[in-house]
Design a protein that fits this description.
Length: 323
């Protein structure tokens, strides 16, 4: 088994994260549920602090720890993918978890039990959202409802804390899109899956890497990567405005024929601003999709690995058979 941990400026939590994950692996090895060759893959996503230095030191001190350093900051989803595609060469199953320790590491043995029962994908699902602010809790629920109405299959209250078998990760690697949204792609794989529930904890240390601005961008990425409903809404809005315009035109004609015309500066200005604003929104929505097409057509690498602590044999994908 490999545990993939994407890291961006996580020097404050790395010691505790390594300690807790190592304890879990020791427990599972002693209970003969995983191989002693199982590993923790820390993926440094272009950190500007001492994160990579700490990973290197820990890989020398702790036989479980390995590290992968990306050449720059590619973003959480690509860092996660880089770790999974590296680890799948030497692993039978992979667990992804964030470095901040908000996801309960004590849930990992339950995930392994489900994997041994024959499930290829095990989702870690939050039992409740008591640690979230009122705003974050309700916006998250609204997002899941919106995605469901748009026909996107998401697991509610699930982030990126999950277990995937080797064949599931290998199938995931066949999805080559540049605009990647793992929470939406993984359910599309269709392999046997189940859920385990846990209570999310407060962040151990440091600051969240997902402020409000990034949360909005992440939500837009998910919506536009998996649904064309926004485009259809723009089209429907256009037809609605045309229908309203016809009604207004008829009314204006009737008023003119009755010779009751009055100069309406206010209504004219409001109409111009309203229609102009709607046009800009429509162009923006269409532009979002055109931008995604532009990125996809370039087919650039989704991430670049600068260096790693892996040995030559493991880099080439040899030594498979580890759980």
């Amino acid at each position: 088994m490999s545990i993939v941990v994407p890291c961006f400026n996580e020097e404050e939590v790395l010691d505790e994260t390594t300690k807790e994950l190592t304890a879990i692996l020791d427990h599972l090895v002693k209970n003969r549920k995983i191989s002693p060759d199982s590993q923790i893959f820390f993926v440094d996503d272009g950190s500007r602090d001492r994160t990579w230095t700490l990973i290197q030191h820990k890989s020398e001190e702790n036989h479980f720890v390995q590290g992968v350093k990306l050449s720059r900051n590619f973003g959480h989803q690509f860092a996660l993918l880089a770790g999974m595609e590296t680890a799948v060469k030497i692993s039978d199953c992979i667990i992804s978890i964030d470095a901040d320790l908000q996801d309960d590491v004590q849930t990992i043995p339950k995930m392994v039990d489900k994997y041994l029962d024959g499930f290829d994908i095990v989702y870690g699902v939050r039992d409740k959202r008591d640690t979230d602010t009122f705003f974050k809790r309700n916006t998250a629920l609204a997002f899941y409802r919106l995605m469901n109405r748009m026909g996107v299959r998401l697991v509610p209250n699930h982030a990126d804390f999950r277990l995937m078998s080797r064949r599931a990760v290998e199938e995931l690697a066949h999805y080559h899109e540049e605009n990647i949204f793992l929470r939406g792609i993984v359910p599309l794989l269709g392999f046997p899956s189940t859920k385990v529930y846990y209570n999310r904890k407060e962040r151990f240390a440091g600051k969240s890497k997902y402020p409000f601005k990034k949360m909005i961008a992440f939500a837009v990425e998910g919506i536009t990567s998996f649904s064309v409903v926004p485009i259809k809404l723009v089209t429907s809005l256009g037809f609605s405005i045309v229908a309203i315009g016809v009604v207004i035109a008829v009314y204006t004609l009737v008023v003119w024929l009755m010779d009751h015309t009055i100069s309406g500066w206010t209504s004219l200005i409001l109409s111009i601003w309203l229609v102009g604003g709607m046009q800009l929104i429509a162009i923006g929505v269409i532009g979002e999709y055109v931008g995604k097409i532009f990125k996809e057509t370039k087919r650039r690498p989704r991430y670049t690995i600068e260096t790693s602590t892996l040995g030559p044999a493991e880099k080439q994908g040899r030594g498979s058979g580890n759980k």
